[in-house]
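input
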Amino acid sequence: MEYLRGLKENLNLNLDLFNIVSIIDILIVAFVLYRLMMLIQGSRAVQLIKGLAVLLVATAVSSLLNLNTVHWLLRQAMTVLVVALPIVFQPELRRALEKLGGGDFFVRPLTQMAEDDRSALINEVVRATQNMSASRTGALIVLERVTGLQELIDTGIKVDGLVSAELLMNIFISKSPLHDGAVIIRGDRLAAAACVLPLSESRHLSRELGTRHRAAVGLSEQSDAVAVVVSEETGAVSLTLEGILYRRLTEVELHDLLVKFLKPTTTRSALSSLWQKR
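output
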């Protein structure tokens, strides 16, 4: 009887340990998957994953319908993809390893900053753009959100300074060594200046728009970053997100848009009723 009682206690203890270990195991896997999803969100990798999912579904359906030739072709394509995936996802894989090695894998993105820090950052950016708008100083300011921009940061000059209106204005002042290019803000730090951004190839953009505007739109087409542009010719302030260009913004409008877009709950659809492409 004592033996059975002891066996039961040991079994209960093992079950308790199993449950605790299992919960920890599941939480770790869920966290890693969440961070990986946040890493590729808004990037071109999302479209590639969707295409891969379509191929997987098509392969399963062709097998069920006994479409032997189609099934064979899809299986060969899947075999090729297994080899090609590391090459296709090379930027995302490298970015993930860089974040993991540098400790950034566990750092909160801009949209998860404390409310006071985010508000202070927005105020500094708005103050800088208004001063540069008044003096018609061209500027391109990028605010990183969830999608990592390390590859673009690497094209510029590392700064790693606390964001302030004075720092931004000094970077873009005429004939400054760093004024040609974009500054990229990560969190509340100015990560780099004189960064090179991809230009948009959209044919719907007005021909009156210069390189800064096309670079801002091009970046927003490939990531979820927010870019603020000050026109050197007119002093007009614009903002881009997800390929949409919001032009001729007033100080209040720019502030309100930044507040809305940089909140974790911000979505493009939530703003579509408030702002139209101008």
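quick obs: The chain has a mean pLDDT of 80.
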